[in-house]
Structure formats: C-alpha cells, structure tokens
Design goal:
3-stranded antiparallel sheet, Protein kinase domain-containing protein, Phosphorylase Kinase, domain 1, 14% strand, 363 residues, Transferase(Phosphotransferase), domain 1, 2 domains
C-alpha cells in the first residue's frame, strides 16, 4: 500500500528527493492532474496550514563584475533614483487568519500547463459581506505544471530545469525582497501549506492586490504629461530601471525574460502627480542570485515595455543607442544618463553597442 504521508508537504521541496521519490511523486502528480479542476475553485474555503519556507537559492558561480567601474549598490532606497512613498499594507494583513475564501480566477491564469493558479480571494469567509477586502492568492499546484509529463517520462533530470521548483524559488525571492514590499513588489501576507479539494497538497502565496491600470491608460497619461514622445520616452526607462535596480539590490534577478511586460503592473497613481512613478514588479518563480550578465535583463524589460506602451521603433532604438553614446558622464541623483546605466547594471560597453541590433528580437 502507498504511504500517503509521503505526499504531504514538504515534498514540495523537490531538490531533496532521490530518484525513487521523484518517480513516486511523478506518478502521483499524474493522478492529481486528472482530478484537478482549478477553474472551479470559486467560493472554495482553503484552510491555511503551517507557513512554508523554502531552501535558499544558491549561486552556481561566484559573481564577478564585468566592468571595473561597476557600481555594486546593495541598498534600498539608494541615492541613484528618486523613490515614491510606499503603499500601506492591506488592513486584513494585520490580523492572523486560518482560512481564506477563493472569489474568482484571474483571466487566463488558471488551467493546465501553468506553474501557478492565481485567484482573487478574501479572508472574509461570509459570502454575504460584499465589501470584503480582496487579496491575491497564487497556488503552486504542482500537478498542473507544464513539465509533469516530462518528469514522468524522465524523472532523473534536474527538475529545476523544467520549472518544477518555481514555487520554492519565489518564496526565497520574496523573503530576499522584504524591504521592497509596498513599493517595488506587493505586500506579502505569507506562504502557507494548503490541501486542495481533490486532496493535492500545495502552497498558497497570499499577497496584496495591486490597484493597477492598463498600459493604454499609462500611455494616455504620458501624452498628457509630456509635450512630445521624445520627452515621454525618457521617463519610462528611468522608472523601470529603478524598479529592477531595487530588486537587484536584494541579490535577486529574474530569469523569466518571456513575460517582462506582463510581470510589470502600473499602480493607479502612476504619472498622475509631479513625483516619481515606479511600476510594481511581480512573478519571481524563475529567479537566480545576481550573476554575470543577469542584470542586463533590465534593459530588455525597458524595450518590451516601451513597445507595450506604443512608442515607435525609432524612438526605442534611439534610447538603446544612447546607452553607449556618451561614456563617462557624471550622474545626478534621480536622473539616469547613459553611462550610469551601464555602470549600475554591469553592462560592458561592447555589449551595449550590440543592443540596437539585438533589441528588435526582444519580446
């Protein structure tokens, strides 16, 4: 008879499993995959078990800067950018809760082959209460992971290469980024062990629901705030680079370069006043510690976000070219000039000169 206790957490820590355990888990994941109905969890009450804490992400190689003048800033807030005030934490986060109620799935964020199932939820279990504060719950339902058929076929391969450790790594990342909560990343209530209705153990990540607006709205605000697109296009990179720099200061770098615009939210107050406006960055399931070249993804994010905002390819290319156009220029706090970007994000001059050609392939 199968030992049911084996399939209870912390099996989620898949890096600890030997080959036999991986085979057993892969077979069980296939069974849960057939039973799971993640898009039917509305109104489900999940009991929150013990808090979940993952293993720390370890560096595969010691970080060696590629520039002699690399500015190794590990502070937040720092003097390199202007920072807006932080948001207040959701009121419900001040109270200890032992359960939460799923309200509804977020569009296109539940179903097969996703590394998490994402819902709006509430700590208010009474469905008659219409003004309950909403939060976001991200459930790492391992049976739904895209790689489940692959690990079943060949469980001996390193599971982290298939994204089977994404929930583990995101817990570590948010622990690293604790000082950024309410500013660059959402406020976090915690990671909790839960059991889903079909019996599958999982981890639920509960966080602040960002009051965000669309890229279209931000584009309209930029047009209203700046006289020309040439002026507007300078403001957006500064905001994005500040956000990514804050994350890097926590020794965290995203490895998900396929969703750089989607994993950036614009808060409702962005570009409505005269102060700095910074985005909120989300989704750190694929991360690493800072390593050579990992900080350059910030430049790629600027390009794809500018495209999402509808700026012309000519303006985007001009900004990318500016990175290597004016070396050795002093920086003023809050204003990022071209050479300062290269120093702050450890980008060699030769690499920057190649970016105008590479940028057209960044999506």
């Amino acid at each position: 008879m199968e030992d049911s206790s084996f399939f209870k957490l912390p099996f989620f820590n898949t890096r600890n499993l030997d080959l036999d355990s991986k085979r057993r888990l892969a077979a069980q994941l296939k069974k849960w995959r057939a039973l799971a109905r993640p898009d039917e969890l509305a109104a489900t009450v999940l009991q929150l078990g013990p808090r979940y804490r993952s293993q720390d992400v370890t560096a595969r190689h010691e970080f060696e800067p590629r520039r002699e003048d690399f500015v190794n800033c590990r502070e937040y807030p720092c003097a390199h950018f202007a920072w807006p005030p932080t948001r207040a934490a959701p009121a419900s986060f001040a109270t200890a809760h032992d359960a939460l109620r799923i309200i509804e799935p977020l569009p296109f964020q539940t179903g097969l082959d996703l590394n998490s199932q994402v819902y709006t939820a509430s700590f208010e279990l009474d469905t008659d209460v219409t003004q309950a504060e909403k939060v976001i719950v991200k459930i790492y339902q391992m049976s739904m992971y895209q790689a489940v058929p692959d690990v079943e076929e060949d469980p001996a391969q390193p599971w982290e290469l298939w994204g089977m450790t994404s929930g583990m790594d995101e817990e570590w990342a948010y622990r690293q980024m604790q000082t950024l909560q309410g500013g660059i990343v959402p406020h976090v209530y915690g990671f909790f062990q839960v059991t889903l209705p079909h019996g599958e153990p999982s981890v639920a990540f509960i966080m602040e629901k960002i009051d965000s607006v669309s890229y279209y709205t931000i584009r309209q605000r930029l047009r209203s705030r700046y006289d020309t697109d040439e002026d507007a296009v300078k403001a957006v990179p500064t905001a994005i680079l500040a956000a990514d720099h804050a994350v890097h200061s926590c020794d965290v770098a995203t490895q998900d370069d396929r969703a750089l615009a989607r994993n950036l939210l614009w808060h409702r107050d962005c570009f409505t006043g005269t102060g700095p406006s910074l985005p909120v960055l989300i989704d750190y399931g694929f991360v690493s510690r800072i390593r050579s070249s990992s900080q350059t993804v910030a430049i790629q994010r600027v390009v794809v976000v500018l495209r999402a905002l509808g700026f012309s390819e000519a303006l985007i290319k001009a900004w990318v070219k500016s990175l290597s156009a004016t070396p050795n220029v002093e920086n003023a706090a809050g204003a990022v000039n071209d050479s300062w970007v290269l120093q702050l994000f450890d980008i060699p001059d030769d690499d920057a000169e190649e970016y105008p050609n590479k940028a057209r392939f960044w999506t």
